[in-house]
């Protein structure tokens, strides 16, 4: 099976340019899975996986397949290379992101449960995610649009 | 972090010997995840991942990291090598297993949601799985014990 990547992002600017170009292949969707999401993601040099965030109702797990990313959390920074992994329980308030500071692409699996109630908080930027079912998914923290 | 593998199996004989020795490292548990399970599994030559089965409430996803396994479903057999993956929606009635017919170990990630209601059916053998919370997890199909 050949799977076309998703190359977009729901982020407004100036955040979208910090994560794109980026390729995500929805492996779980391809097999009809609905309770878990599994993305195969290729992150180019200089790009961020997302803004630093934490989820209200979805856990996340990252498994690095090749290349190197830097994990950023409240605890600081840590490089992750092939065969390394990290999990993020929900609702912790400790935000995370991956940054590719290397010279080549980084490839990793992103795994999460799916919960329609999920929102995400972004402590470093004026952004709020209101969930997959919200009419306006991303706003500023005061609820105003971009 | 160094993670000790789980080397046991809940299966009664003669099924346990068909899957062991086998190493599973519970990566998701190590990070405190509760809604999804992620195992890093090493399956030696000649061994089966499980008896061929399907789940009532849990989806599964396999991503092969190294080596080769043969996927067996109602559709037949298909080899899976590094970088290949397959997902199994819940409740399909199409049972699956992986068999290592190669000369070396096969290594893969096993990913699933977690649902306390989950049971598993085994069309090829006289075995029934009654779920993680059942007092007797495995019985014969008529409910009798081993």
Brief rundown of the structure:
The structure is a homodimer of 146-residue chains. In chain A, the strands form three sheets. The first copy, chain A, has a five-stranded antiparallel β-sheet with strand order 1-2-9-4-7.
Overview of the molecule:
The structure is a homodimer of 146-residue chains. Chain A has 146 residues and is mainly β. Helix content of chain A is 5%, strand content 37%. In chain A, the strands form three sheets. Chain A has a five-stranded antiparallel beta sheet. The interface between A and B is medium-sized, with 25 and 25 residues.
Which sheet architecture does the biggest sheet of chain A show?
5 strands, antiparallel
Largest interface by Cβ-Cβ < 8 Å = A-B, 25 and 25 residues
Order of helices and strands of chain A: HEHEEEEEEEEEEE
Query: How many whole angstroms does the radius of gyration of chain A measure?
Result: 15 Å
Overall residue-averaged pLDDT value of chain A: 97
Order of neighbouring strands in the sheet with most strands of chain A: 1-2-9-4-7
Count of β-strands of chain A: 12
Could you give the distance between the termini of chain A? 38 Å
As an assembly, this protein is homodimer
**What structural class results from the helix and strand content of chain A?**
mainly beta
Strand content of chain A: 35-45%
- Low-pLDDT stretches of chain A are none
Gross morphology of chain A = globular
Number of distinct helices of chain A: 2
The proportion of residues forming helix of chain A, as a percent range, comes to: under 10%
